[in-house]
Design a protein that fits this description.
Layout: H1 3-17, E1 26-28, E2 35-40, E3 43-49, H2 62-75, H3 90-103, E4 107-111, H4 114-128, E5 133-137, H5 142-151, E6 155-158, H6 163-171, E7 179-184, H7 196-205, E8 209-213, H8 228-231, E9 240-244, E10 254-258, H9 260-269, H10 271-274, H11 281-296, H12 299-317, E11 330-333, H13 337-351, E12 353-354, E13 357-358, E14 369-372, H14 380-396
Parallel strand pairs: 3-12, 5-6, 5-7, 7-8, 8-9
Antiparallel strand pairs: 1-2, 2-3, 4-10, 9-10, 11-14, 13-14
Helix pairs in contact: 2-11, 3-11, 4-5, 13-14
Length: about 400
């Protein structure tokens, strides 16, 4: 076996398809978000970031950075172990209480990322609830798919946001059989929003638990930043909420919020929780400060949605193929991996604008796109520069006919 040849062949296949991923070497500037330095062969240069998931810029907020500095000064850098072996600091306990309060749940459980939280929780529940059938939206995140697969139980794939299909599949399983409906609130690549209330109606009718991934919604929606479920007034009807501390809250980590017994069961059985070193105390302190601030401040959320709506309007006005939706996500369809990378390379090289191409397997082949994430901190001048650059690139090579794209399941 020529291992090197095999690996090279696999990499060549990705390159040939036009979806080989290149990491941008960035150094963000504290207090100057969304400006960053981009490091390349010719040296660093200033760029504007238009694809960060730090949606509100909370990674730069003085309350967050001050809390992290204080924690480092008080207890040092790392946590020292797993949650079970010396790694449960008071910062972790306080943060879990803050998250439980945010979602109106009895308890919360921290993980190193929302990916790990989804994988560990769904796989553990599939094993603990004997015979459990998981009903999964076809556009669910890879972490949810991984968790369902690792649980090794029966599953049914539901057409995206399709209530009729969900009910038909629920009907096919006996009422007494354990069931989990797993779905997202905001689907981050299209910007679609799930009909949470109607899904909860079906869950109650057919004796199912609801598992809601609010990763791209926490901090961004609802009176206190609890997500779409809070905004829609149905948070109390959702059994398990998954969230992240790395996007709207601007730090790092993931969590679930649910009943005390459910969190305790996952804590007690999930290898992805038991055998992982806990978050650094400084991260927990920063996340808690961010959540506390956004529970009481609507300024950042209001500004974000105004910026997203303005960007969609401006892209539409100049004939660029923005994919319309009712969320803060601003995808622009390209539909070809080679063209997608060409557009993003040109934005970076010619216009000092960083946008990452979104290719398979993140999105289906033939739906490659750029995904713009305006923040409250993006200035009018930065908006103008982006629109001007995109117009110039589309004029040179109109990669998707310059039409507004509307997907079926908005």
């Amino acid at each position: 076996m020529d291992y090197r040849k095999q690996l090279k062949s696999a990499l060549d296949a990705v390159r040939l398809e036009g979806r080989y991923r290149v990491f941008a070497d960035l150094k963000r500037r504290r207090g100057a978000y969304p400006t960053a330095d981009h490091f390349a062969a010719e040296g660093p240069r200033e760029i504007t970031v238009w694809c960060s998931n730090d949606y509100l810029g909370m990674s730069q907020h003085p309350k967050v950075t001050a809390a992290m500095h204080e924690a480092v000064d008080m207890v040092g850098a790392g946590s020292g172990g797993t949650r079970n072996i010396s790694g449960t600091t008071h910062y972790h306990v306080e943060l879990e209480a803050e998250i439980a309060d945010l979602h109106g749940k009895e308890a919360a459980l921290l993980f190193t990322s929302a990916y790990v939280a989804n994988d560990a929780t769904l796989s553990t529940l599939a094993e603990l609830l004997e015979g459990c059938v998981i009903f999964s939206d076809e556009k669910n995140h890879a972490s949810m798919i991984a968790g369902i697969r690792h649980g090794r139980g029966p599953k049914k794939i539901i057409r995206h946001n399709d209530l009729e299909d969900l009910e038909a599949q629920l009907k096919s399983v006996p009422l007494e059989t354990p069931k989990i409906i797993a779905f997202e609130s905001v689907y981050s690549m299209d910007g679609h929003i799930a009909p949470i209330a109607e899904i909860c109606d079906l869950a109650e009718k057919y004796n199912a638990l609801t598992y809601l991934d609010e990763v791209h919604a926490v901090g961004l929606y609802g009176p206190r930043g609890g997500g779409i479920a809070e905004r829609d007034g149905v948070m109390d009807r959702v059994d398990i909420i998954n969230g992240t501390l790395a996007k709207g809250f601007g730090v790092m980590g993931g969590y679930i919020a649910a009943s005390r017994d459910l969190c305790d069961a996952v804590r007690s059985y999930a290898p992805g929780f038991i055998f992982t070193t806990s978050l650094a105390p400084a991260l927990a302190a920063g996340a808690r400060a961010s959540i506390r601030h956004l529970k009481n401040s609507t300024e950042e959320r209001t500004a974000l949605h105004a910026q997203a709506n303005m960007l969609k309007d401006r892209l539409t006005d100049v004939g660029l193929p923005v994919m319309q939706n009712n969320s803060h996500i601003v995808p622009v369809m390209i539909g070809n991996p080679v063209h997608c990378k060409a557009v993003t390379d040109a934005l970076l090289d010619q216009h000092n604008i960083y946008v990452q191409p979104i290719n398979y397997p993140t999105v289906p082949r033939g739906t490659e796109r750029i995904r713009l994430t305006p923040s409250p901190q993006h200035s009018k001048a930065q908006f103008d520069a982006l629109i001007s650059a995109l117009q110039a690139l589309w004029a040179e090579c109109p990669v998707s006919a310059g039409k507004t794209v509307r997907l079926a399941a908005e």
